[in-house]
Amino acid sequence: MSVIIFIHGLESSNQGTKSVYFRERFPHMIIPHFTGSLQERMEKLEGLLSDKTGIKMVGSSFGGLMASLFAMENEARVDRVILLAPAIHLIAAMGYPLGKISVPVSIYHGEGDEVIPLQEVERIAREAFLNLSFHRVDDDHFLHKTFKTMDWDALLNH
What range does the domain containing 53 cover? Predict the structure, then answer.
């Protein structure tokens, strides 16, 4: 059975703008709340998805880092990854190897992002994600202008 999960950013929660948006439009989506260190968050994520396959992941910022790491470690169980200004530039700094994955990955990153470095994220993404669709958008880190205009039905039901 296919499952869709949204992973919020470091200082957000499952009550943030994106979580509320997804909860209203995709009631079957798993939208957990994460706290603690990256390791604690990854353990919770792995527990939530331990018996799942056909996983579609949406990760925002630090949640994008988490989704990427999960997909790198569990590629056979992941169908698709959608990353919003993902903090994948932290993979090496957090002590994880940069894995290569071939599942479809779509990244949306604002050119005005002052939190996550666009150039570095794009370089790492092009190295790690072999089936990548990278979208530079005229927006900020939170993708205020872009997020609600994205074709989420197509992205999540692809």
Answer: 3-156
